[in-house]
TrEMBL record:
It comes from Lentzea aerocolonigenes. It comes from the Bacteria. This is DUF2199 domain-containing protein. Pfam families: DUF2199. InterPro entries: DUF2199.
Length: 167
């Protein structure tokens, strides 16, 4: 969903609308030089570094209390090799939605959060085929975990848009 235009508090200009999703292209540990080594792979849905570190893409959903749609962060989570292999094994199986959640570590630094979001504990829930996994944060007092539990406002969505526009 993209809302009507909004007036930016940073620059005073009117911008085209509030995006309700942002995605990170790679785990924070990825760098372009890693692509030179065949043991390193960055795909659309997974990443492997040195055949040792395994990451999958997922979604952190934040309810927006004063809107009819949720906000989503597209993030990366590290998994153990066993969990990564299991996810790959059931990737095309419709029954994968019955898999127990996989423990992981958030491998994305999201803007607008202190302390950092890097290495927050997560549970990754597989979804139906064609839908990226849902990431559930450990219920701590970290601001991102609180926002996942309690929701955010359109004003917070605008803060994210302003950060993206004026990094």
């Amino acid at each position: 969903m993209i809302t009507p235009a909004f007036t930016c508090t940073c620059c005073g200009h009117e911008h085209d609308g509030l995006p309700f999703a942002y995605a990170m292209a790679a785990p924070v540990y990825w760098s372009p030089q890693l692509a030179e080594n065949p043991d390193n792979v960055l795909g659309d849905e997974y990443c492997v570094i040195d055949n040792e570190h395994h990451f999958v893409r997922g979604r952190i959903v934040l309810p927006v209390r004063d809107a009819g749609e949720d906000f989503e962060w597209g993030v990366w989570v590290s998994l153990s090799k066993a969990n990564f292999d299991r996810m790959a094994e059931v990737f095309d199986d419709p029954a994968r939605v019955q898999e127990p959640p996989y423990f992981g570590w958030l491998s994305t630094v999201l803007p607008g959060y202190e302390p950092t979001t890097l290495n927050l504990k997560t549970n990754l829930h597989t979804q139906e085929i064609g839908v990226r996994p849902l990431i559930e944060l450990e219920p701590t007092d970290h601001p991102l975990a609180v926002e996942q539990r309690e929701g955010i406002t359109l004003a917070r969505v605008q803060e994210f848009a302003e950060m993206a526009l004026h990094q």
